[in-house]
Amino acid sequence: MKLDRIADVPIFAKAEYLNPGGSIKDRVARHMIEQAEKRGELKKEISGLFVPGQFVNPDNPDIHYLTTGREIWTQMDGRVDAFVAGVGSGGTLAGVARLLKEKNPAVRIAAVEPANASALLGQEPGPPHRRHRRRFHPGRAGRLGHRRRDHRDGRRRDQDRPAPDPGGGRARRNLFGRERLM
Q1: Is residue 59 part of a domain?
Q2: Which among 49, 121, 150, 178 is placed 20 to 30 Å from 38, CA to CA?
Q3: CATH code at position 86
């Protein structure tokens, strides 16, 4: 969707909140489970517990390379100057960035995350006063046969931006109000 009330340059947004589960995680969860089934990992789990490990599971960025990035490139007719994404596990940004940089190495890639969740800066997530109590363990995927890889490694990013507003509340309200999104 085109956002034409918030800037003097054309800005487009991919409305992943319209997915059945209301999140970009819909495609990730489905793909990680399908791939685990193909590899037989679900059958091997004795405890009945399967932890896909979205922070280190290569299926996370792969689905965004195969789908989200291609959708953006196609829907924009290859006219992509920059891609900005909020970062949690980093899978969306890593997969989309890989595809866009393959298509056009000049595309700028920027990662944004709340300042109090500064994993991009190598800090533990959470408010500073709680960081000493919370240890960041990006999943148990290494024990489930996945290669350990953190998708937030920054190799394809051109810029990291901490958002000063925790959770992006003010920016979200401003965007929704100006663009009349609901």
Answers
A1: yes
A2: 150
A3: 3.40.50
Distance linking the first and last C-alpha atoms of the chain: 13
pLDDT at 63: 95
Side by side, the strands of the sheet bearing 159-163 are 82-86, 108-114, 159-163
Based on the structure, what is the number of domains in the chain?
1
* Listed residue (111, 31, 103, 94) closest to 63, CA to CA: 31
Q: Is the pTM of this model over 0.85?
A: no
Which stretches of the chain drop beneath a pLDDT of 50?
128-149
Distances (CA, A) of 147 to 111, 139, 150, 157: 23, 12, 10, 21
* Per-residue pLDDT at 8: 83
* Whole-number pLDDT of residue 86: 82
8 φ/ψ angles, rounded to the nearest 5 degrees: -85, 0
CA 6 vs. chain centroid, Å, equals 23
- Model pLDDT, residue 96: 95
The rounded Cα 173 to chain-centroid distance in angstroms is: 21
Q: Which two tokens stand for residue 124?
A: 């533990």
Tell me how far apart the alpha carbons of residues 117 and 122 are, in angstroms, rounded to a whole number.
10
